[in-house]
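Hi all, posting the design record for the shared folder.

TITLE: backbone redesign
STEP: 1 of 1
STRUCTURE INPUT:
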């Protein structure tokens, strides 16, 4: 039973008979070890490990500018608005390319080749970014962030699609939590180590400056190379599973079209609004947070980097725990509501009080982790499986549109109005997200959706759907009359049937072999 549950979680609920057929197809040899068997939980844990590290390098290098905010501004002689262009250039290509990344995963490259290509973009982009700093050419750094962005968000789409393909079912929220945990581990290490790396490199080259900055960023590119290796290994394991389990990659029996976007249900559009309005109050704030803590709370640069990274530090261990909790309880919309409310409270504490910022940032870290675990899996509940890549790509696309616009707006607001007005702006964005969550609850309730169902109710529905599917696949039992009609008649039986149609009365002991049609003819 446990093996069947594991197999069903991996392959999306195929019947047990097909699984037995595949096992038989392996031949009379010895069964595969658990760690090598794609249908076994242990092997899927190995796949999950590479899946989690797939985004490590991308998340590590994404926040390189935030970790080196003061160094970048001083070494390159920039203002805040110009500095935030590094984040805007990352987001701009994904307004379009992230959506097409999901489409390409579904229709052109496939999940394996697409993941490798996007990982290459991340590596090349980071190298160009570091080279721009080395030669003190800010435009070249912007080009590098643009190329890095082409791969970064599309790689996140590929990671999400891998997760759904391997773990769709009751484990999905936990898997999303683990992926977020490892990604944020990369962001945490970046926030706390890049300042130290810069100081060591500056000592080696003799003085701080653009050369030390470029060398530090080039060292960070090693993490992108590590993620590329994970993409290659993950592609090999997925291809191997396809051969062993006799399943075709990306074959769902449906043809996806770009025009499918107009058919996305209303709850999915509301999820998009929540995603955009929430994350624009998180990432731009962290990108500008180091100077905020130095100016308002008189922190040292090291203390400011530490408190600025607490969101990612908390997210790393909290995400799988909170994902497991959401898996066990369900009620995704309620959990999203709680996350948005606590995020609003955290921003208000940072904006309007002088309480220790560790409190507000810790609350922000927990709420950020909870929202990610509850919000992103809801996409799989409202769209067909063959549209998942496109749906996740579109979600990332409009998220990056919001991040690009808000990054530029945040830099301009900070240069002209200061941090207090910027925090009020972030609070307004969170309020819009809160209204969208309330709307999602009522829309889902009126449409009879399952976004806010308990885990037990979803499990019951899945069980009933699986039973119905098995009943439809199972051949129906033939009745005695059906068997009689299928049995070839003897010459004696054909003669008696002919006589019965003429109205001749046949003795009862001679009519037992007649079909039901013959009996109906006699009655007529």
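Okay, here is what came back for every position:
SEQUENCE:
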């Amino acid at each position: 039973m446990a093996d069947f549950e594991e197999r069903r979680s991996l392959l999306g609920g195929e019947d047990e008979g097909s699984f037995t057929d595949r096992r038989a197809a392996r031949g009379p040899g010895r069964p595969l070890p658990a760690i090598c068997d794609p249908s076994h939980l242990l092997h899927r844990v190995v796949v999950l490990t590479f899946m989690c590290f797939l985004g490590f390098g991308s998340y590590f290098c994404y926040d390189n500018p935030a970790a080196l905010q003061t160094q970048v501004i001083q070494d390159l002689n920039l203002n805040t608005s110009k500095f935030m262009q590094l984040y805007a250039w990352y987001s701009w290509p994904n307004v379009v390319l992230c959506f097409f990344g999901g489409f390409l995963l579904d229709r052109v490259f496939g999940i394996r080749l697409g993941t490798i290509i996007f990982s290459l973009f991340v590596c090349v982009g980071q190298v160009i970014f570091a080279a721009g700093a080395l030669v003190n050419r800010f435009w070249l750094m912007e080009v590098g962030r643009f190329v890095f962005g082409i791969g970064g968000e599309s790689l996140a789409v590929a990671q999400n699609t891998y997760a759904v393909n391997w773990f769709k079912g009751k484990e999905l929220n936990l898997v999303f939590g683990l992926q977020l945990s490892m990604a944020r581990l990369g962001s945490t290490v970046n926030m706390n180590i890049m300042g130290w790396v810069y100081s060591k490199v500056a000592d080696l080259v003799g003085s701080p400056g653009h050369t030390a900055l470029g060398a530090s960023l080039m060292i960070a590119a090693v993490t992108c190379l590590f993620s590329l290796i994970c993409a290659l290994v993950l592609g090999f394991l997925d291809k191997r599973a396809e051969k062993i389990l006799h399943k075709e990659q990306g074959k769902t029996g449906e043809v996806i079209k770009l025009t499918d976007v107009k058919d996305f249900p209303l709850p999915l559009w509301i999820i998009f609004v929540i995603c955009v309005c929430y994350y624009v109050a998180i990432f731009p704030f962290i990108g500008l947070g180091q100077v905020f803590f130095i100016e308002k709370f008189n922190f040292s640069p090291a203390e400011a980097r530490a408190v600025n990274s607490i969101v990612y530090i908390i997210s790393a261990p909290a995400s799988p725990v909170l994902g497991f909790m959401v898996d066990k309880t369900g009620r995704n919309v309620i959990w999203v509501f709680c996350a948005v409310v606590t995020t609003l409270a955290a921003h208000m504490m940072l904006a309007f009080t002088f309480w220790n910022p560790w409190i507000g940032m810790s609350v922000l870290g927990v709420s950020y982790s909870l929202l990610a675990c509850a919000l992103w899996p809801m996409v799989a509940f409202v769209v067909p499986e063959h549209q998942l890549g496109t749906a996740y790509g579109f979600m990332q696309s409009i998220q990056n549109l919001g991040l690009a616009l808000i990054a530029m707006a945040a830099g301009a607001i900070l240069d002209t109005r200061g941090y207090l007005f910027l925090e009020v702006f972030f609070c307004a964005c969170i309020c819009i997200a809160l209204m969208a969550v309330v709307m999602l609850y009522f829309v889902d309730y009126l449409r009879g959706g399952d976004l806010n169902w308990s885990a037990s109710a979803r499990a019951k529905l899945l069980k009933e759907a699986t039973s119905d599917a098995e009943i439809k696949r199972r051949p129906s039992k033939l009745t005695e009359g059906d068997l009689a009609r299928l049995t070839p008649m003897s010459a004696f039986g054909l003669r008696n049937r002919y006589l019965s149609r003429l109205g001749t009365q046949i003795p009862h002991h001679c009519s037992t072999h007649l079909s039901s049609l013959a009996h109906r003819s006699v009655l007529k």
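COMMENT: The longest helix spans residues 210-244.
Let me know if anyone wants the other runs.
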